[in-house]
Predict the 3D structure of the following.
Amino acid sequence: MGTMRLIAGIGFEIAWCLFVMVNLTPSSAGRIWTVSNANAKSGQSGKVSATVLVFVVLLAVAGGGGAAWLILPGHGAIGAVGNTAASATGVVTVHLDGFTVNLADAQSSSFLRVTMDLALERLPSATERDKPASGLPMGRIRDTILTVLTQCKAQALLSSEGKAELKKQLLSELSRNLPELGVRDIYFTEFLVQR
């Protein structure tokens, strides 16, 4: 109920500001709106059509909705959480900071830069729902991932099969080392191999 009041209040404020800015006043009939500005002083009174009035009202409602979207938690710039997304299945997606590692190529100096998200079935009990990274054992997660990444060779990672194999290895090691998280999937959001 409070959200609806907030949206209605913002919409009303925007409508009032627009009303004052345009300086519209109702005519005596109540159906026709006249502009009371310099034209009215010179004896010319312009009539504003119902279309303009509807446009102003729609603009006010859209502005109020946009402002509420920015203000309410979980949306827009002010209430952004940023690092989580929960689906209807109960899976929580956690964004990890990027990894840059030297690869296990003996002949050349190659490196991998990768950023990923983890799909987790459950969070540790001490974890805040809106900040899941706060309660995760990040040291163990990052160590497990780094151990797998540094064993890779550049040539293998260039093919889609190599990326799929890397994902499979990461899932296996994370499930073995961190069974309490229930890692369901890994999503690469950035993947760059430099040879």
Q: What stands out?
A: Residues 74-88 have pLDDT under 50 and may be disordered. The CA atoms of residues 120 and 142 lie 15 Å apart.
